[in-house]
């Protein structure tokens, strides 16, 4: 175990998954004694971005859940294999569950992580208790306009070590305007810069055009009807990265599923950071109905 987290209630563990090494964050009980939740981060960040939510779960409902948040390959403190695809991420998640010993877990995917989580649920439904999509476009393949428009510049700025330029982009695309987190309550900017360090550690910026190494979102609408898991969608109504009209389209896509939706009023692209306590309560209420 490596002590390198922002919150005392969150621990960091190193693990090897096949051809690369990575880390995962853990809070709460061990999987043998509690329901498990696996949190899948989005593109260009890392599992570090789940820490406020993991800490909130432990603060509000101590030891009720076993929470795990890995760094996907090429992100954060993970190694960088030569090729990175969405399929790789699904295999990595399966290897992580097997390594930890998780038979089943609630799967929570944020942004690009929502597509990874959906792909995992389609491939391994027996390992999933539910599917939670956070500010995610799944099952559609529409581009995340905010991040797609700045990815090339973000890659160049990161490679040049331009910390403040990257900070401006991440704030604009991922956080509600002028308030972080919880209306600038502590830990505020200290937490933001801790999270930003993981963006500066992204080693692979996928190409924009579809191809063997592209992480561009894929259309899963022909396959998602095979899912029988309960699905929860959580998003803000002031998300700068996803057009507001998308959410009505998403509701229609999930109409025949056990589907629920929670909207964070005034929230941006990052509900787990902007309102971690409310986020933890929202998921706990959903899990308690299953």
- Rounded to the nearest angstrom, the distance between the terminal CA atoms is 33 Å
Secondary-structure element series: EEEHEHEHEHHHEHEHH
**Mean pLDDT reading:** 83
- Give the DSSP E fraction (strand runs of 2 or more residues): 15-25%
Radius of gyration equals 17 Å
Brief sketch in words of this structure:
The protein is α/β, with parallel strands linked by helices.
Question: Please, could you describe this protein's structure?
Answer:
The protein has 290 residues and is α/β, with parallel strands linked by helices. It contains 9 helices and 8 strands. The chain has helices at residues 51-60, 86-100, 112-123, 145-159, 163-174, 188-199, 246-253, 271-274, 276-288; strands at 11-17, 20-28, 35-40, 65-70, 105-110, 128-134, 231-236, 259-264. Strands 1-2-4-3-5-6-7-8 form an 8-stranded mixed sheet. Helix 1 (51-60) crosses helix 9 (276-288), helix 2 (86-100) crosses helix 3 (112-123) and helix 4 packs antiparallel against helix 5.
């Amino acid at each position: 175990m490596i002590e390198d987290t922002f919150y005392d209630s969150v621990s960091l563990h190193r693990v090897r998954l096949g051809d690369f090494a990575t880390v995962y964050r853990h809070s709460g009980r061990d999987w043998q004694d509690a329901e498990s939740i696996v949190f899948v981060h989005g593109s260009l960040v890392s599992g570090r971005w789940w820490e406020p939510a993991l800490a909130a779960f432990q603060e509000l409902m101590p030891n009720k859940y076993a929470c795990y948040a890995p760094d996907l390959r090429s992100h954060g403190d993970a190694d960088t294999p030569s090729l990175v695809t969405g399929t790789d991420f699904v295999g990595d998640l399966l290897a992580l569950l097997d390594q930890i010993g998780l038979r089943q877990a609630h799967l929570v995917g944020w942004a690009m992580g929502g597509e990874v989580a959906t792909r995992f649920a389609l491939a391994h439904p027996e390992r999933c208790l539910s599917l939670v999509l956070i500010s995610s476009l799944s099952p559609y393949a529409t581009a995340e306009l905010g991040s797609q428009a700045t990815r090339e510049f973000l890659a160049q700025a990161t490679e040049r070590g331009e910390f403040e330029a990257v900070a401006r982009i991440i704030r604009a695309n991922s956080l509600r305007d002028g308030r972080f987190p919880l209306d600038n309550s502590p830990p505020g900017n200290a937490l933001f810069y801790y999270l930003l360090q993981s963006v500066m550690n992204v080693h692979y910026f996928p190409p924009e055009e579809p191809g063997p190494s592209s992480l561009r979102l894929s259309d899963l609408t022909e396959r998602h009807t095979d899912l029988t898991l309960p699905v929860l969608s959580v998003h803000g109504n002031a998300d700068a990265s996803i057009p507001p009209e998308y959410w009505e389209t998403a509701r229609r896509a999930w109409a025949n599923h056990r589907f629920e939706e929670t909207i964070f009023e005034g929230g941006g692209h990052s509900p787990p950071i902007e309102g971690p306590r409310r986020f933890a309560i929202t998921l706990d209420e959903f899990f308690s109905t299953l």
